[in-house]
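P.,

For your records, the input lines for the assembly:
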Amino acid sequence: MRKVAVVGIGHSKFGKRKGVTIKELSHEAITPALQDAGITAKDVDAGVIAIAGEEFAAQGCPAAAIGDYVGLTGKPVYRVEAACASGSAAVRTAWTQIASGLADIALAAGVETMTHMSTERATELMARAGDALWEYPYGVSFPAFYALTATAHMAQYGTTREQLSTVSVKNHKYGALNPYAHFYQKPVDLQTAMKSVMISHPLNLFDCCPISDGAAAVILASEEKAKQLTDTPIWIIGLGGGSDTMQISERQSLTGLLGTRRAAEQAFKMAKLEPKDIQGMNVHDCFTIAEIMAYEDLGFCKKGEGGKFAQEGQTDIGGKIPTNIDGGLKAKGHPIAATGVSMTYEATKQLRGQAEKGRQIPNLEHFLTMNCGMTGQFMFVHIYSR
Amino acid sequence: MRKVAVVGIGHSKFGKRKGVTIKELSHEAITPALQDAGITAKDVDAGVIAIAGEEFAAQGCPAAAIGDYVGLTGKPVYRVEAACASGSAAVRTAWTQIASGLADIALAAGVETMTHMSTERATELMARAGDALWEYPYGVSFPAFYALTATAHMAQYGTTREQLSTVSVKNHKYGALNPYAHFYQKPVDLQTAMKSVMISHPLNLFDCCPISDGAAAVILASEEKAKQLTDTPIWIIGLGGGSDTMQISERQSLTGLLGTRRAAEQAFKMAKLEPKDIQGMNVHDCFTIAEIMAYEDLGFCKKGEGGKFAQEGQTDIGGKIPTNIDGGLKAKGHPIAATGVSMTYEATKQLRGQAEKGRQIPNLEHFLTMNCGMTGQFMFVHIYSR
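Structure tokens returned:
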């Protein structure tokens, strides 16, 4: 197995990006990533593009259009899709192409345009990722599913309204410091977060990530190439993947995700590390309850104690495991397939010590990212090292 | 780089499969593939599912639904998409997961349901894979594009109507012997093929592959696992990928595909072989002219001589390079994302000596598959060895 490092990163502004196509948005992330790596598209052996929805993209088979637009014409390029975890599937796929020896330098990018349609249409398209026969037609959209998990978590472990909002406030605090975030310069106080409009009980507006447009890109390289290109390669040393039952009704529990535990187990084993060795992470906070469950399923606190863990400040800077210090999905935004790649971008930025003022995690050696598709049917955990 | 072998294969019947969902169709291919490998879903470390279109699938993010349905619950599963080359992208992705050491046993499957909608709607959905701004709105559907290439090939090299139909007749001859083929037991004579209804001049009905439902699956394994599982592992020893400009108007020539030449060059180099070392192949004959161009771009005859090459019988059994001896896309059918995996199925079946009566290629050592997405924007060449 060849070692693989991140050697270049790029990020578009996340948010409502009216009138921008997926090609243009991809270019905003891919071109800076190539420049950051000190290379041109000619140096890239293979490209993997994450896009979750064709109707979102407004282009069939969109990877070809993007690859050609950014200069990869002639090179092998294709698309991966794992719902909201598509971006991490792209990083994993680019990683395996290099680790296997098929490529020396590979691009992983994720992009989504979502705000060109109504919020209702976007919510419906996302809900269609649920079981098309047994769940989607009966109203199990994503807010509804995560509301079920929040209710179960509250009933079983006493998780509170305030604990949910604590996660939201933390993520907005750091999103406000991230110029690429959808809610840049928009912190929120606890009272506002607790009393915002109800979306799906018990989840209110500030428990839910927004619908955003955006793109992120990373350049991965083999050990030999990485050492030629940069003095600060960021190694991806652990990869894990998991999934879960398609139908929620078949699950043994609603208060955790099997896929997270499976993926984390693999990634920690491969990296030869434990949760105590990780100093910072990004997790999939599509809803505040998802972040709380992630603390638990990844092994950073006991099952049921995630709410308390957040309230104690353990996932803020200065706590045991600073989490989503770029704003997370909640405040940075969640252009579906861009999210996983944006997590790798953030891991690299933090480990390089390049995060913006007020949001650099100190003393980082290892970083973890956890990206969830649908309601846990796609799950990827990556572990990074300086 | 770890060696990777095909150790199990499965195939559904291709054709009009009324009332069958993508989950059921996938099961028809994946379950026999697992049985052929002598394993169960529990033994599989990772799954890669090729599906070209979400509207074809009638299920958002369909890989999750399929993975769970065939027993991969808990395992990492995701989707790859490269238009009509999606199946080969799945095989490549599964291959890299094993070669990199991330998995020991991986599933690659491809499935498409296409006949549940009107032919007009299916043609429109496919045409949307063309440039959504500059080509699709002006009527450049796939038959129209390949008609342009056929016209150019005829004008530049003197390729004839009869030569095009020769390809169709050969592929129907062998499709008629393949029980999984859409046109099983339906050979066609030269006069019928030459005089069928015009679709897009100069391409008539018998120059065009049908719209089909279907699935194919293969199980790949590391060298260690492969030797435990089977006495006849089929090694994938060369992989190449390529692409081309998104817009056809930007190409230097319409009589060949840059992506084929790039992908073939990589695959032959990796396998340390030349065209003369290959004794059988499957190429992407979505239209008869595409098969003729493939002979040339892959290096089996000179540019411009593909039509003559077919007419001489060089691509039939007994010729220099028997091609599409399972019926090809033309007669086996083309359920988009199943096609590339079906090619790996056929390569394995032929190299094992298990092809049905009348269509076994003799004296096989090496086999090649070439799978094209869109009008060459996605291209994959794989080389196999006994």
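Two observations worth noting. The CA atoms of residues 77 and 318 of chain B lie 42 Å apart. Chain B has a mean pLDDT of 96.

Regards
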